[in-house]
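User: structure tokens for Magnesium transport protein CorA, please.
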Amino acid sequence: MRRKEGTRLHRRRHISNRHLSDKYYYAGEHETVTDIRLTQYNSDGLHTTEVKKGTTSFNKLTDPNKVNWFQVSGLTDSEAITRIVNDFGLHNLDAKDILTPQHVVKIEEYANHMLIILNSSYYDANMEIHSEHISLLVTGNVVITFTETNNPVFASTMKALESDMLNLRKKGSGLLLAFLLNTIIANLVETASKVEEMLEDIEETLLDIKSDQGNMGSLIQQRRHEYMIIRKNSQPLKEQFPKLLRTENGIISPDMLPVYTDLSDQLQFVIQTTESCREIISSLVDLYISNNDLRMNAIMKRLTVVSTLFIPLTFLVGVWGMNFKLMPELDWRYGYGIAWGIMFLTGLLTWIYMRKKDWF
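Assistant: Done. Predicted tokens:
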């Protein structure tokens, strides 16, 4: 069943979750209607149902013999989000972290729970970058994902479940968590690689001094903004990720460590790519400024050549413009034509001299 689309941007500057309170609200920009789906699976099969937001106990909907994946899209219904968090044994402050897109990236491990707060980056069809706040709550055989919008962020994970990739339906929640994290990290890898490719295209354009470079400054600034978003989303996650490799609550079994190690390697690739982007941006700024100076120098050179050509002509015109009575040139029958000839010859000789000197 297709989820109802109800997303539009809206500034919530008046909402803040910075202070301690007994009730918190969504502090983001999206007005997506909260929608909850429950996917339950084991080795025998997979089943997905819609869950009503007014459900009194989400915990009672779970099946102890299956892995239960709650997909919560849209965080506008803060009461439902808080009830879900409380229902599975976490505090209101954890709900605050989920409802606050500005929250720092973190991986919090409890005795029987794990809460992961992070951000994903992706490009839309118009090649505009977006950053989405995502939270993952894992406890026992229950995995809950919270996303700001109803974009199909985890569509690839659902396809993996349907095809039982890597025997996913035969494993526990730890492998499902790995697939969810892989989707998020893959988006970071893709966006970082795209930014690097676009920066390399800008570099090729700047190296060709004859190309049109009118909007290169704004393009460099735009790519820098995109790079900062990716770096902001990936760097803290890389610092927090080792916690998953050392977890002791049993959610991630030892046989799954190679999968999580691979995810850590992908994160390292993102960090290396963003560092490469940073160096390219720095060199592009220098190259752009240098090209502007070169173009300015070329313009000044052409203006100087034109000025130099007209200096002797201006001198001649000034002499003949003094109108003294004893100027024989004024009485010559061909004086006007001779004057033009002298000026033309003077300009031509000046031009030939500058060409021989390779001044332009």
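User: Anything notable?

Assistant: The radius of gyration is 34 Å.
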